[in-house]
Amino acid sequence: MTKIDLHAHSSVSDGTESPAELVRQAQEAGLDVVAITDHDTTDGWDEALKTAADIGMTLVPGIELSTRHHGVSVHIVSYLPNPHDPDLLRELAEIQGSRSSRAERIVNNLSEDFPITWAELLASVPAGSTIGRPHIADFLIAKGVAENRGTIFDDILHPKHGYTVPYHAPLPPEGIALIRKAGGVPVLAHPAAARTRGTIPKEVLAELVDAGLFGLEIEHPENREELKPVLYDYANYFGLQVTGSSDWHGTGKENRLGDGLTKREVLEKILEEGTGYPIALTV
Ligand code: AMP
Ligand code: ZN
Ligand code: FE
Ligand code: FE
Questions:
Q1: Counting ligands in written order, which one lies closest to the CA of residue 131?
Q2: Is the overall model pTM greater than 0.90, yes or no?
Q3: Which residue among 12, 82, 123, 127 is buried most deeply as judged by most CB within 10 Å?
């Protein structure tokens, strides 16, 4: 069996390990294929592709694109878009800029009650990384305010405390259309993650399908078990493909590489449709 994990983060966004280390650990975990899908950036691709070629793995370059629907963050994990597509680059730059000013606002809010300043936080984030709440969490952990990212997300960074503010992101159908236009293959990430109330309503999913959605990431460790049958029904109804992935963040999350797996025939379809950055399956 080809072991394929299609969602993992490096330190180019909010993972704790470098792109090269991501690929090495994927091989140690017994995977044949891994995707690098950092938030809103393709900056890790070259390093990951080179390491994969060196050690004999297949690396699928991707992005986890941030979108927003009625105030709820919707992630579109996307494979093989052209990383030089001007419209995609413009949108990524806009999201990055907004993430940065939003992080600054969150840090300023926190600085009234916690030992943190924007200058110190920025100095703690690898240059050029897509910034997010995990970096703020790591900073507070280093200061002894909490033990791990999970406790901070449940507590201080939870929107109910008022420190966290949103950032700009396109609407989900816009994001999906943008990825397709760049030759990429868009999949709705973790559509029934534990923290969300339920799963995406069918009529909203219909709009995403119209916009070009390829699949649903059903085999994801954070999707609620009891909602998976609903998601499989949706996949059947709309003719969507099903993927499986770990959403590994190094030591930043409990998810281990290989915690979700994608079928080889689904990956083969992704490689067929992903014309923005064609790659070959080497395993
Ligand atoms: P942001 O990009 O600022 O919206 O933060 C969202 C990121 O934080 C996602 O990539 C998640 O993987 C991560 N995240 C969310 N909740 C948790 C948690 N409880 N523990 C660790 N990471 C989390
Ligand atoms: Zn993340
Ligand atoms: Fe996500
Ligand atoms: Fe992710």
A1: 1
A2: yes
A3: 12
